[in-house]
Automatic annotation (TrEMBL), chains A, B, C, D, E, F:
<dbReference type="GO" id="GO:0009001">
    <property type="term" value="F:serine O-acetyltransferase activity"/>
</dbReference>
<protein>
    <submittedName>
        <fullName>Serine acetyltransferase</fullName>
        <ecNumber>2.3.1.30</ecNumber>
    </submittedName>
</protein>
<keyword id="KW-0808">Transferase</keyword>
<dbReference type="InterPro" id="IPR053376">
    <property type="entry name" value="Serine_acetyltransferase"/>
</dbReference>
<dbReference type="InterPro" id="IPR042122">
    <property type="entry name" value="Ser_AcTrfase_N_sf"/>
</dbReference>
<dbReference type="InterPro" id="IPR045304">
    <property type="entry name" value="LbH_SAT"/>
</dbReference>
<dbReference type="GO" id="GO:0008652">
    <property type="term" value="P:amino acid biosynthetic process"/>
</dbReference>
<dbReference type="InterPro" id="IPR011004">
    <property type="entry name" value="Trimer_LpxA-like_sf"/>
</dbReference>
<keyword id="KW-0012">Acyltransferase</keyword>
<keyword id="KW-0028">Amino-acid biosynthesis</keyword>
Length: 304, 304, 304, 304, 304, 304
């Protein structure tokens, strides 16, 4: 055994020792977790069902659409069953140790969830179609649905949210969160799958947008980049997860870039406008415009 | 036919029905759209022409550079013709129905655009070289061009912008926007391909930067993360797309993190500095420093 | 020779001419730079050693873990030697021309760095395990380590930082920066590898977070999206790179979304809380809460 | 320009000069030939329609079979149109220069051929099913259809032949030959797509089998490795391509390893058996057994 | 519905109808067969354990060999369990319907077979090492083990045989045959996994070699291309599968190209030599040389 | 440690022990052998230079051919240097231990070989063009160069031979043999790279053809499947490798399927024809036709 071999053996034993000691961040029981790649693949298939012909390099046309849809449905069905089944098997460390559920029961429930999601693709598409129209209407630079679907991160993010939210509402664990995090990584838009969002929703630019779990958003709402719809810090610690911790935006509200709206009791009334960088922790009545007061700026000419 | 087969058939028909009803978000006429993947590939080839030897795993050296360049040019030429030709064929839904143009005419125009872009790579590289120097000068932590080109998202974003802007100015639809959106997704920096940006431009960190379509930026300008150069909300609705809706930054302006500068008539004079989080909707003369006034903070000691 | 061939030849010569003129942004001496893809692969291997079984599609279990670890260690060792060796060969343009070092010396040093990093994986994992616990404790929505490791961008970002910081402290050039930039591109969280960060660190949502090179962060610190820990502008130009230019956060500090803390002398005392959007350029004593004063807003009801 | 660069430039010009001089073996007009890879892909799709569930890693089940079939049919249809269209555009150098046919005419004909092939998959499968049964019956070692379909090269070769022969009979150029050559490369069994072969055909082991273009083979025929059904040399030069140059084997004939049967007028009568290594250039009546006479061997004991 | 859509629908229903009618050549119950690709992958892993460092692009060295071996063993173990388990689940159509065995029983048996094979890799390597020496000794053109292992199809074929034969002897169905067929397709050498072959075996060139199921081959035997060790035709029909139907070659026998040796009772005595193209259906005593008698040729000068 | 872990550890140690004992069939010093995959890639590049536009899916046209050629030349140059350099480093076990040569010397020689091969591509193409013409002339079924180049295994085999033979004559070890073995595996045609073959050479069907190292073949020679040009067995043992052990075929010789011609002194005179299955170990004068005498067959009618 050479010196380097001895060294390598030591490195290995060191890391194995660490697996024994920090057991919470290794997962050594085979492939029983839903992998990011598996979730990403099924999300890609679902998006190709939602926006057929727009995203991938598959050729879809009138001729083949029935079979394209059937083949993707069957594949998604099997993949959803697998990842949902695995996700349901993970114990929630935070809660009290749940009774482990028998595998066939988990499988049957995963199957039901998968069928249910696919059965709702048409209604999900209805809402997403309204989102695409909102993007076309909301941005004077937008020219065609093709442009909006292929190039607007806000449209991708809300489409994924609508799929993830459907699973979230039926109680599917982990998967909805993995889906929204995948699109967060690609768009910078972080919408918790628990948020309830009405139709014709549009996020422009979008980087830095955060929408919390118990947010309620009405119809025809428009957000710009960097908007936070969050919890007040005090609430985090004092309220339980079930409480509404994030604000409500009624229909036809617009929130400009960098604004922050906090609190579960905060309601932005119908048709209101919240200006850029505004920090808002209380409700405003319908039809209100809230702007930063004339900014308190200090200006001076550079010496020289 | 089993129950599950019946179920699957229902799912499929449901989704097909949805394609008939929400026709705007499906595209069932084959592969006649430029796909994201195709735009990404050609963008990768163009960047490898701009920064040869820095990005990929291709071995490029003095020996092979002529052939490397020729092979990439020929490949890019064909790919650009294809994606530009497809993009020009898409009807702009917003406008009045344009007369469909004959395919040979589209193809000839696409060819001209492709040749023109490749012919301008040298002048585009001149400007990008100034951007790289600006990054080296602007960040005390930067050590070599290699570091800046491989690790600074701002450098990637401006390089892609300079390519996309060239196409935008010649009237190529959709492709410039798809290119800038690809790099937005990777860097969090969202520069509309319409923005005019002088040489030696540097964006540091960059996440959350938004630069609008009609922005004018002079030379030696430097922006930090989270800066918005945007339109005032009122303008969006009342002005046409052609109007200048976004601000002008003259030469040697620096804008710190999180600042927002809005409005088509807003001009930040040469050599000015805009401090972090400043919200500015009016012009300032050359040589001005604008900072938030002493922040109005409320401080108290935690009870204990 | 046809017209188009002549045209293509001209394009090629134009670009080659540009390589001669803008020599700083081409790199034509073969494959002697560490490529992004190579750094990404080794980072993926290191993360799979840190979080075995969570990230990839590899099946790892008790049975195979020793060999999985050994195989990844050996592969990482070779890959680290190669990329570190290449990075050490790059001249720092900013400094005075360093004496080129002999290849065997570079190789030996790269080997030492690679062994050293792998030998510290166990201690790095200890700290990362504390970060995962902090995420679980800090977010009422988090349910299991699996959820946190697979779906929280902040956890990925800090794990990569801890690896990159180890290399940074030993003086490895370029590679640490390429690693953190890779994860910045995926999460929107930009932590300079030079920052010193105590254990149990948590970044929630994270898009737009920037943490500067000389930042010091204590234990149990929590940041939200859009937080900047930066340098004051004046400092950038007047101080050398070695000076501490970024703030210090003591243990148990929380900083809410969009807050900006600047300056090398700024110290946020133990247990303090900095509210959302706060702009802070001076120190605060332990146990302080700093919030925006009641926001100076202008509100009016929409006409009509 | 360095020496090596000059050298490389010379190499390149040398090869380009060779393209000008030996024009028959370069093809420099873009991608207008059917590539081996494209033919291989479509052949793979067709085989997956013929033997669904046996060959690939696709999961096909009762649930998804309709959509699997539809998706493969649509994909094959498009791919067949493309490769057949290209093949029909190639001038046959041997014949007199054919009038180049207009593209739409070629496309329409290619479409007709593609549809026609897919419409005959059921009847082709009927015959292939008989071949599989023949393999099961003919080899005492064979145990299941699964074994025969996955592990018997003779079954693959005859299945590909039946597809290629269908195209050959309809006059599709080049593609049938490329298909049979692909399977020849994998199995060592070289069946010209022109050969007419009755049902329940079985080739055991198969390496080295050659079956010529105008061979006629009845039902329930069985061949072993190394059998040649060829033309007599004299015939090759004196007869035209249209003449029957290869033998006829009537029903229930068996030919053992290494036998050679030559000549367009040679008829092996129903139920005959041709022994190993037999060389046969004349007809034999039904029910004949032909064997090598007691081999004329010379034997001696090794000196020792 | 357009004409072509109707046409496609008809194609699909036609093929589905064919699945109902020719049920023996479709397999529509999901992925429960071992796929060729899966068998090929595990075979590749096993060969990389047998010839580490010679075949793939993996870097294996003294440093990493333990982990390389462990990682491949673990991976092969899981893969073998899976494919053997599936193969054991296939009913042998030929036999009487076996009682379907419970899954856990199949799994346990598959596990035992997988462990057993890996445990015998060392003894299998011992024999293969003798085969490599035989190739080096037997071919005056061979220069190094590297040349023999990377470039001699006979060496690959016998190595695969030794693995497959191990499984065959333990009664594993289908997999051994799929393994030898994979290497038959690549080398043209068809060795039935049932054949018993002594050490130091060498096949030169090899195309067309066929070695039957019940062949016995002693030590230091050498075969050239086109040799058949087969069954006499009469035997096929009259004897059961269990009978010895193929010949026996004692130690130190050499058989030249194209020779055919048939029959279960045929024994080629120790040290004998069988000349090219010889057809032999009876035993010869030790030390015999058998050659074609002076070939009965007809020669004439071409008329001129 | 569980039972299975202990078991796995034992498996691993068993295999490692075997590496120590059978050292000749493992190669544990890293990646210093030319891998099959590397040789295959460079062979693919060389063939695409020989038959541009015919084989791959690259689009090559008049426009891009210069750059296509240059890029492939540069890539092949680097790859050839690497694999030839590695091959030259392997000790020939058979010979007396050669003095290990210094790496720069090996590298310089590998470079010279690589340049030399590329410089001879034009003359190699000249000969291959004659081979393609011979195939077109020799097979009445052949219609176009496209058909011959894409579908005739004999054409691929001779093209690879001509490349490999060039390297062989210059003394490059191992690589020529690996190249011809790659094409042997795909076509069943085994031509030793040492054979000297005149122009206009054609092999029809080809499976089972073997052409030995010291064979000399004139111009316009044509071989059918299963032809062996080999050494007499006695010669193998008694003569040295340098002796001519394989036959000579003068110009315009045709050899039909299955014929065997043996012996270094055997000369088949110009214009001769050797019939199928003939076994020939002596010379024949020019213009001779050699055929099997009326086959000695035994025929009988099957008992009814």
């Amino acid at each position: 055994m050479t010196d380097t071999q001895r060294q390598l053996a030591l490195l290995v034993e060191g890391i194995l020792g660490s697996y024994a000691e920090q057991g919470n961040i290794n997962h050594l029981d085979g492939s029983n977790l839903p992998s990011r790649a598996a979730v990403d693949r099924v999300l890609g298939d679902l998006l190709s069902l939602v926006f057929p012909g727009f995203l991938g390099e598959d050729e879809v046309d009138e001729l083949s659409s029935r079979y394209f849809v059937g083949e993707r449905c069957a594949r998604s069905l099997r993949a959803l069953e697998r990842i949902i089944g695995r996700a349901m098997g993970i114990q929630c460390a935070a809660g009290k140790p749940a009774r482990p559920r028998p595998v066939p029961e988990l499988h049957a429930e995963a199957h039901t969830h998968a069928i249910d999601l696919l059965a709702h693709i048409p209604t999900i598409r209805e809402v997403i179609a309204s989102d695409v129209r909102a993007a076309l209407d909301g941005d004077p630079a937008a020219c065609s649905a093709a442009e909006v679907i292929t190039s607007y991160p806000g449209v991708t993010a809300i489409a994924v949210h609508r799929i993830a939210h459907h699973l979230y509402r039926r109680g599917v664990p982990l998967i909805p969160r993995m889906m929204t995090e995948l699109v967060h990584g690609r768009t910078g838009i972080d919408i918790h799958p628990g948020a309830r969002i009405g139709d014709s929703f549009f996020v422009d630019h979008g980087t830095g947008v955060v929408i919390g779990e118990t947010t309620h958003i009405g119809e025809h709402v428009k957000l710009y980049q960097g908007v936070t719809l969050g919890a007040m810090s005090v609430e985090v610690s004092e309220r339980s997860r079930a409480t509404k911790r994030h604000p409500t935006l009624e229909d036809h509200v617009t929130v400009y870039a960098g604004a922050t709206i906090l609190g579960g009791d905060t309601v932005i009334g119908r048709g209101s406008t919240v200006g850029g960088n505004v920090w808002l922790t209380h409700s405003v009545p319908p039809g209100t415009t809230v702007m930063l007061d004339k900014p308190s700026l200090r200006m001076f000419t550079n010496a020289g």
